Amino acid sequence: MKTSSCVSWGRGRALPSDLDRHLFVHMLREEWRLHQSLIGPMGSAFFPAFIFVFTAGLAVLVPMFLSGLSYSALLLMFHVASAMYGLFVGSIGHIGEEIWSRRLGQINVILQLPQILPLSFKRVMAIFYLKDALYYVLYTFAHFTGAEHADRPAIE
Question: I need a surface site. Which of 54, 58, 71, 128 has the fewest CB within 10 A?
């Protein structure tokens, strides 16, 4: 059995030596837990499947409906849809922040980490942004892209 080595940090506290990875993994778990608490376990689990099925269906139907549009118009529509999706994800984040502040008061756990752990604010925010990027790429865009490529033979 592999044990992780720990670094002593004041008053007998022990921190994992791979604190960045440890923090990243726990942030990913917390993001998944937050989605489950907001949407429910079934909704959270089946959202990527819904994206895959919906995108696969659209990949088959869109060539029939949009055959008269140019490639640049389709690309513009894709970019606008991606920006709208980003705004949607941001609004969900805002709702999550409101729920946190109603439950815990006016504290921000991420912003408090540098005060309670030997990490800089820049490092915590970098880990947070990497976590968000990876989580949402795997949770949504990977299924979107996968469905698009799965239906590629049907389109051609």
Answer: 71
